[in-house]
Fold this sequence. Notes:
- The protein is α+β, with helices and mostly antiparallel strands and 178 residues long.
- The chain is 33% helix and 25% strand.
- It has five helices and seven strands; from the N terminus they run βααββαβαβαββ.
Amino acid sequence: MNGLHLVVPIEKHREEWLAYLREWSLTGEGMTPWALDPCGGDFDRFLQVTAQFAAGVDIPPDKVPAGLFLLVDDEERLFGAVSIRYRLNDYLLQYGGHVGYGVRPSERRKGYAGKMLSLALAICREHKIDRVLVTCDTVNTASARTIRANGGILENEVIHPDGSPVQRYWIDNRKKTT
């Protein structure tokens, strides 16, 4: 786990990003976080949209300013991605939270999600987010364990508009959790 850090995506991440997308597409699952591929595989557009969201400029009215970060090692291998929403709208308050993350399918169950969430919480502290909402599908017990390991306290379970149950966890981010 040494040498892992969160970085803003730039040109040198193009090939790893494309390989990451290919790997996700083979799973048949939806991309997590969504912000990792808002442009259908167009890396240049992805960089542009990522910068717009980070600056809070020219984003759709139903979205909020957010940073997207890649979890990479010292060789720039991409292990996961995390989206940090700097404020919450009504939808995010109920279902999405401040932080959404996903781990490269071939790298799951190796502790990367916990490391990524810990690093994301440090960024949230930099943005003065004292209470961080993190959600997960109720069936995603691995994510629930990761959230709890990073200080998450279950507030409740709600039903997403698609009918799936979602657990809502709050993390007191005024103290370091890991």
